[in-house]
Amino acid sequence: MLGNLFKGVQPSFDTPYIVHDRIIFGEVFSLIQLESTWCRGYMMLQADEEPFIGLAARVCGEPVATENFRRVNDLLSEITNMIWGGFKNRYIGDTTAAAGATQVQVPVIVNHKHNYISFGTSNPQLCFRLNLDDAAGVRLTSLQARFVFNLNWSPEYFREITPDAGTLVESGELELF
Question: How many structural domains comprise the chain?
């Protein structure tokens, strides 16, 4: 998935873990809402800006410069959309989540001075660390993905979505030998 976007960059994941803190990792993060019949909350990607500027310059073929922070925003947005799309296609496929239901919202509080974010609950957050290495195995940067199910968590309603292999073969994403 990410390999198509980043030529010569190898993604890998550390073992997933749970956190109870609300400390922000890095200087830049993205939030995107997750909503289904079994969960409601957010996915948050966080990164250190400086190594991400280098990665953005490498991907875009531009010189490394601190004023390229907008490229970091674009790249982080693209990665967020790719991961969210994969999560949505596999785990959220039901579109009836909000049909007829009263949707409660809580404020998301961000305090940059203290690197703090609150989603209005003390529920633990599921974390994944995505490492991006070059072909020689040198770490370019890492991203931290947090899944925060602060508004609804009802795993008993979860139904796994199994992809239709026929469409994957037709699109070229899956090859049968």
Answer: 1
